[in-house]
């Protein structure tokens, strides 16, 4: 029996052309260039700030970090009070804004009816667009008098036995006022990111939890938040970075005073506020270099904070996926 002849296979029609390959190459090149440009900008910033701070680094060394005196006429400079002020105001703001932001995000994503969700979410997003100087002016004319007349005395009456809530609670320009201003400024960005994270949790997981008899609170506690807790931590750290670098609004309400007191109800200063407040009026080259040295310290603090955030997020992801 003669075997049937098998027709030779014909090639599939070409669907890619030279132009497609050129497009792939352009896409790769442009995206790689954008990434390299971002890295180059970061290194350029670090180099320029370090170069400007070098005279102060050479003059004061690392002792600049723990020295407290800041006397421009005598060319004596130290950063300790400003570092403390930056840490206290930024972390104080995050301690207040983080739970508020998460609560707002949960309300908008899980509980609010559509008629409320859209306008409230829009208003929260619009708060992020308010200029810092406007929030600072509002802090001067509205928040500071209200805080000195009502909020600080009420806290002092209950917690005045704790040193950080002692002192005169009727002072308007205080570290506490700066913390409240930074809290208001960090809430929008943290809330927006957390809201998108909660909305991204698969509906099947939440509906399955409800179907198994969980209450709404149990669903949020055991399914929604654990599913995105790494992202929530990243959102909070992003808000912290916003608080660390804020200068104008803090300068307007903190009082710009050293030395720092042990109480929050007293004037203070931060790194960003001191740089913004004195750079244009610096009376010597060494003062300018000392101010840039402050900026370099703030840059290092910001980088270390972001590295810590990445480590925390990675650890949460490993725990969620069952990694070591």
Gist of the model:
The chain is mainly α and 324 residues long. The chain has helices spanning 18-60, 63-66, 80-111, 114-127, 132-159, 175-199, 203-211, 216-227, 229-245, 248-253, 271-278, 285-321.
Describe the structure.
The protein has helices spanning 18-60, 63-66, 80-111, 114-127, 132-159, 175-199, 203-211, 216-227, 229-245, 248-253, 271-278, 285-321. It is mainly α and 324 residues long. Helix 4 packs across helix 6 (175-199) and helix 6 (175-199) runs antiparallel to helix 9 (229-245).
Throw out a few tags for this protein.
single chain, mainly alpha, 12 helices, 73% helix
Summarize the topology:
Layout: H1 18-60, H2 63-66, H3 80-111, H4 114-127, H5 132-159, H6 175-199, H7 203-211, H8 216-227, H9 229-245, H10 248-253, H11 271-278, H12 285-321
Query: Helix segment count?
Result: 12
Largest sheet: none
SSE sequence, one letter per element: HHHHHHHHHHHH
Overall 3D shape: globular
Low-confidence parts, pLDDT < 50 over ≥5 residues? Answer: none
Q: Which structural category do the helix and sheet elements fall into?
A: mainly alpha
Helix % is over 70%
Average pLDDT score: 86
Query: Per DSSP, what share of the residues sits in E-state strands of 2 or more residues?
Result: under 5%
Number-wise, the strands total: 0
How far the N terminus sits from the C terminus, by CA atoms, comes to 65 Å
C-alpha-based Rg, rounded: 27 Å
